Amino acid sequence: MDPVTHALLGSTTAVWFTSRQRLVTAAVVGGCAALLADLDVLIHSSQDPLLQLEFHRQFTHALIFTPVGGLVAALLLWWWARGRATFRQTWVMGCWGYATAGPLDACTSYGTQLLWPFSDLRIAWSLVPVVEPVTTVLLAVFLALAVVRHHTRWAMAGGVAMLAWFGVAWFQHQRASDMAMVWAQQRGDRVEVLHIKPTMMNLVLWRAVYKTGPDIQSVALRPGLWGEARVYPGARARWIDAAQPVPGISMESVLGRDVRRFVRLSDDFVVIHPRHPEVLGDGRYALLPHTIDPLWGITLDPDHSGRHAPFDSFRAWGPETAGVLLHMLLGREGVPGLSRSAADAQPPTLNSGSSSGRS
């Protein structure tokens, strides 16, 4: 999730497991420790753009890495914490804060390798979006009460309030999943793999994307916390099979291996970007929940198959996009403007010397 929520939860958890005498110290150490896991963004290579994607939410977010993360936090903050707590106490505070980073990120929809190195499984419970204001406000209010009133019970209350809100999120997720399955059955689609994901900053509107035969289908779902439940039919696209060769590219080349890596990192939900036919995109994510306009992808250039594929993001947010999202959030009738389905796109034409045309 966002850094503010990470820090608040790390502080709340560290305060929860400390004494009143060290409450402020625990809040500072736990909050700072919770931010350290996201330093994985510093792992990157200008020569291999997919390296950062591979290490995103990997070992730094693993549960087994918690003692190391707590130790790093204690070492960094010992100059300040000395005199307020022993080094061992500071280390424990750091561990409590750091331990929240991976599970909290696993509550979002990207996927976190909590069990690394024993498993490469990316856990994504898809309960809340990356930025979710209710969670942030709940944690901030109860943590402030704990500090002002100097009692850990307020931190405990904040943790319970957050878990209760996540229970609402789970309920909404289940409702959206049921709606998606019913809608797919009505269309005659056999759902092979289904992803249900929350949309930006709310638990009202959800995105469903599923595999059915050779296609990926998206649909926006509004189980709603209020108002009538609605389904907004979406786009359909052919998914890319990593076992099949890409025209003009040797799958044993550097570029070919990058294609296989990207397909794996995208959980086999790769499609041709409808507005950039030379781009393979991650079909699980889109700005609008009923479209298949990937937020990121790799550019294929067979003239440079000996080089790693460029990695680009496509986040063309504007008034029109905001209007369509608001239309669905409010539960209005009718399907908003839908981008051209990637199912209509032909396989990428990768001619020699072609430009990517990225924006």
Overall shape: globular
- Secondary structural class: alpha+beta
Summed over residues and divided by their number, the pLDDT gives a mean of: 91
* Order of strands in the sheet with most strands: 1-2-3-4
Q: What share of the residues does DSSP label as strand, in percent?
A: 5-15%
Beta-strand segment tally? 8
Tally of helical runs: 10
Low-confidence stretches at least 5 residues in length (pLDDT < 50)?
A: 338-359
Rounded to an integer in angstroms, the radius of gyration calculated over CA atoms is 22 Å
Helix content: 25-40%
What is the count of structural domains? 2
What is the N-to-C order of secondary-structure elements (H for helix, E for strand)? HHHHHHHHEEEEHEEEEH
Report on the biggest sheet.
4 strands, antiparallel
Structure write-up:
The protein is of the alpha+beta class and 359 residues long. The chain has 2 domains: 3-169, no CATH class; 189-344, no CATH class. 40% of the residues lie in helices and 13% in strands. It has helices spanning 3-16, 23-36, 50-55, 66-81, 87-98, 101-106, 133-149, 153-187, 254-265, 319-329; strands spanning 193-198, 206-212, 215-222, 230-238, 270-273, 276-282, 296-299, 311-313.
